[in-house]
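Priority: low. Protein: DNA (cytosine-5-)-methyltransferase. Input follows.
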Amino acid sequence: MSHSKLTVVDFFCGAGGFSEGFRQQGFDIILGIDSWQPAIDTFNHNFRKGFQPKNILDFDHSIEEIEQLPDSDILLGSPPCVSFSTSNKSGKADKTLGIKLTECFLRVVAIKKHKPESILKAWFMENVKNSKRYLPTSYSFEDLRLSEWAEKNGIDPKMTAITLEGNSSIINSADYGSLQSRNRLITGEVIRYGKFLVPTPTHRCPSSKTVNRNGIELQSLPNFRTLGDFLNNFPSPFEKESQELIKDPSYDLSVEKTALSDHFYDTGIHSCEWRSSKYLKLNHPFMGRMSFPESPNKPSRTVTATSIGSSREALIFKTEIKREGDGEYRVPTVRESAVLMGFPLTYQFVGSEGIKRKLVGNAVCPSVSSALAKEVRRAYGLSNIEKPHIATVSNLKGINNLNTFDVKEFGTPPKRKAGSRFRRHPFKKGNMTVALSNYDITGKAEEFGTWRSTVFYGTGEGFGSFTYDENFYTQLEPIIRSEFSDGEKFIATINNGFSEKIASKDLLQEMYEKKFSTGCYLEPTLLIEELARIIEDFDTHDELFVQSTQKIFEKPIVPKGQLYSLYAINKIVSIANNN
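Result:
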């Protein structure tokens, strides 16, 4: 080829992560298209452009608009993935818009690929893994509503325009040097070869059984980069302002601390928030166990578009300063999230903290797009770019820098909505849980606000369950006393100290919604936490309860801790509902 400066048009460009990887490999980014103003502002800031927001659906009903787009060597697209995600409404969200946006991008690809004297050399599309389930294996021109265009250009409308099957691969960003593990479906085609070329990994999972890919012995590659390596070698958000140079974890680049934006501020979260996240990670009713806080010995989990510190998906770090309760744990700063994604320290994001998190979390990892760009260069005989092309200076003009170099004061935590549902169990054991709830979890009763004690025999839909009547605990007392040597002491512990912390049903609900305790009473999440600690002290030898004459559980043998849990939770229910 006579030149090496291939051109790129980026659809759904967002913060520009897809384009950034291609720019690092010497490509010329000539157009970014997105309907969201902060995305275009961020793209313009980093690529020194002046684009205006534009909705890609404009191309859905106008072939003329598609033809007016500049021809480019590369087409990139990352249609919004929210509706395809399994985490959105448990995977049951409406997929219509996601499919329409995807097919709109593919319309553009089809025209630019098949037009006379096309210069298109490759196209790539990024989305969540789940999106593959909702798209066909291929599209004809007719499928893309391009029949008239095809006939005009001497093409049979029923001919295949775009093939997806065999041209898609699940790509993990950690394979390409990213500090996070992020699995995304990449679909595309290098036109010269008529297929998608999976980039050769640069790093490997230590436990990987694969010995080679694209002729490369993977066992000779360095191991995945870990979160611990990053956090141990990057400044704490609580450091003081100085002229110190900060080295970029992923690039041959250093910036002064004063030019490192969006990092030196307090991201500590309320105690009620991190406790909720801890429970959902370690003790979720039907999902697997996760690390709390994050494991330092492997890549970070996927960076998300929010900083909700109470969720199961939240990234939670131990705060570097000495604090207990509120602020004891924190979420990543925007800059930390950007580094985990693979953005250089000089890359800037325009908007409020919430907007910046959305821009970062929805981006394509530059490490992945850079790997794709390398494959295109290799396919077309272009020389290898040894040193990535990145901005060497931070342009902070017009940027809302989040840095404060201050420690924040914690006020009242955000309230839950009135009538919020509560469900929590002390632990999972014997594939069972004993849950306290303020509604009928089994769905058999409509009444809300009455507290219930329910046993679940399993962790998924379809497993048996049973809700116990109030005061059932009185029937358990003689059994506990006679079956276990510490039974008398356990009952005394519950009745002397713990029971006094149980509020009436209305106050229990009010404390739950306000996320803090009142007087001597504990709000229900803390009540269950304390119960878990009490039972742990009495259940040190993994003893079992074997039912004899009286049937309490559906299973003949259950962990002793579950019997103790049922006793205490039914006592909570009985006291709360009758006060």
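The two ends are 83 Å apart (CA to CA). Residues 37 and 536 are 53 Å apart (CA to CA).
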